[in-house]
Amino acid sequence: EVQLVESGGGLVQPGGSLRLSCATSGFTLSDQYMDWVRQAPGKGLEWVGRTKNKANSYTTKYAASVKGRFTVSRDDSTNSVYLQMNSLTTEDTAVYYCARARNYAFDVWGQGTMVTVSS
Amino acid sequence: QSALTQPAAVSGSPGQSITISCTGTSSDVGGYNFVTWYQQHPGKAPKLLIYEVSQRPSGVSNRFSGSKSGNTASLTISGLQAEDEADYYCNSYASTDTYVFGTGTKVTVL
């Protein structure tokens, strides 16, 4: 069974950092693009960033709102994807989802992990 | 990249058909056939309904269909059922090699 499980969310002060993890299973991670999508409380979905697969040199891309502050990385040997978030602001408060991308679609999603940025 | 424009709410009676629009630009919806649609029930993760404008993943009901004309994509739900009450989001690949979601539409079954 294909599965994604996020962890690492919590409460962090403005200006702080947090690292989210996404444990994957049921597929070969090195073959896949992996993305992060977030959803602020009561708001819509926002694409955050991606790591492409091994064949595409693990290239990363980011939304303008997080570029320079967030970093997506992966460890295919442990079937894990990460989102390092620095210089956090209250605007980054959201549920963060890990998603597998295939055919330009997010076909498998995790359950999400909540990040709250507050003093 | 600005969010794609969707109506905030659409409603219909059981058995009816409804259509949700998703308007972007030539740099996203109009420029690529990589429009997707997602269904999200409260407190749950989104679920892929449509990919590549009109393709349905295995297991998705054929009551859901997608199309595109110019810079506007559409999702039609036929034979509306109570379980279809949810939020719906479109998404498109964009020229900057990024993605943009729609503003979201709340579907109510009357």
Shape of chain A: globular
Largest sheet of chain A: 7 strands, mixed
**Biggest sheet of chain B: strands, sense, closure?**
6 strands, mixed
The overall pLDDT average of chain B reads 97
Strand content of chain B: 35-45%
Shape of chain B: globular
Question: How does the helix and strand content of chain B classify structurally?
Answer: mainly beta
**Any low-confidence stretches of chain A, pLDDT <50, length ≥5?**
none
Structural class of chain A: mainly beta
Instruction: Calculate the terminal CA-CA distance of chain B, rounded to whole Å.
Output: 35 Å
Tally of contiguous helical segments of chain B: 0
Identify the quaternary structure here. heterodimer
Radius of gyration of chain B: 13 Å
Q: What is the total tally of β strands of chain A?
A: 11
Number of strands of chain B: 9
What's the number of helices of chain A? 0
- Strand residue content of chain A: over 45%
Whole-number average pLDDT of chain A?
A: 97
Low-confidence stretches of chain B: none
Task: Please give a structural write-up.
The complex is a heterodimer of chains A (119) and B (110). Chain A has strands spanning 3-7, 10-12, 18-25, 33-39, 45-51, 60-62, 70-75, 80-85, 94-102, 105-109, 113-117. Chain A has 119 residues and is mainly β. The model of chain A has no long low-confidence stretch (mean pLDDT 97). The N and C termini of chain B lie far apart (35 Å). Chain B is globular and about 40 Å long. Chain B is 0% helix and 44% strand. Chain B has strands at 9-12, 18-23, 35-40, 47-50, 64-69, 72-77, 86-93, 99-101, 105-109. Chain A binds chain B through residues 35, 37, 44-47, 61-64, 97, 103-107, 109-112, and chain B through 1, 3, 32, 34, 36, 38, 40, 45-48, 51-52, 55, 57, 89, 91, 93, 97-104.
